[in-house]
Backbone:
């Protein structure tokens, strides 16, 4: 037995390129993550991003990572972690960049369905939901967690710093269309940053658009962990609670 096979037999962890976790998360339970892009392939450069700055925003959709490679890695993980795999609540497509930029996302969701009874979640910045083919690709997921930090173009450019080709109106329309076409759950995530998108006036406008989108849940968050940007501050608990009440029953702070 060579040393590599011996390490495997002794229970050393497999080396994974696309799969991470599983992690126990408050909102998803036990969730195994899959990254569909290399590091920081994203069409946003959010001020609160925990992955650091986006060197160059990229909006092109392509096969950044081959689906066959991800599926093969997932099969290995499931075989090697047979007991733990039965406890997974979700397999979550998210990771090191924006997952919908990978053109293989729809095929990957179908393959995951064949391999595991866990539910499939997609965490997305919502930038590509204006494209019918992207919404169609996500149709077999159980849960989509899209972001909507603002409904104002100027604030959008300050907080999410998108690629020049992306506009907030397109994202809002994409979310409304997603609600019409998608039969799974939609949990809309709103990241609130002090002094940027937390004014009463902005929250009132945000509420109007969220009513049109009609998600199953609205989840408020504020950047509590370290970000690469200076001056990105979280809201205090009272302010978050105040906004939660304004946005109504479906809204929770997590
Ligand atoms: S969309 Fe996500 S990955 Fe992209 S910059 Fe924003 S937080 Fe980071």
Residues:
């Amino acid at each position: 037995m060579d040393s590599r096979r011996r390490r495997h037999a002794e229970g050393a962890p497999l080396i994974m390129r696309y799969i991470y976790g599983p992690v126990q998360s408050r909102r998803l339970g036990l969730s195994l993550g899959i990254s569909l892009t290399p590091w920081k392939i994203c069409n946003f450069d959010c001020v609160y991003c925990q992955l650091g700055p986006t060197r160059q925003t990229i909006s092109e959709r392509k096969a950044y990572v081959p689906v066959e490679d991800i599926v093969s890695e997932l099969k290995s993980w499931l075989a090697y972690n047979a007991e733990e795999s039965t406890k997974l609540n979700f397999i979550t497509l998210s990771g090191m960049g924006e997952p919908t930029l990978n053109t293989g996302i729809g095929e990957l969701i179908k393959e995951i369905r064949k391999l595991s009874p866990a539910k499939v979640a997609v965490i997305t910045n919502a930038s590509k939901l204006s494209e019918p083919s992207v919404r169609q690709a996500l149709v077999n997921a159980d849960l989509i967690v899209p972001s909507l930090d603002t409904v104002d173009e100027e604030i959008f450019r300050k907080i999410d710093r998108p690629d020049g080709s992306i506009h907030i109106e397109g994202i809002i329309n994409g979310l409304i269309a997603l609600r019409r076409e998608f039969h799974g759950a939609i949990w809309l995530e709103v990241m609130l940053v002090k002094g940027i998108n937390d004014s009463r006036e902005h929250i009132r406008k945000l509420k109007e658009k969220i009513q049109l989108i009609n998600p199953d849940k609205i989840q408020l968050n504020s950047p509590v962990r370290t970000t690469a940007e200076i001056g990105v501050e979280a809201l205090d608990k009272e302010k978050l609670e105040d906004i939660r009440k304004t946005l109504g029953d479906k809204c929770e702070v997590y």
Summary: The domain at 3-253 is CATH 3.20.20.70 (TIM Barrel). Residues 67-80 form the longest helix (14 residues). Residues 42, 44-46, 49, 51, 54, 97-98, 125 surround iron/sulfur cluster (CB under 6 Å).
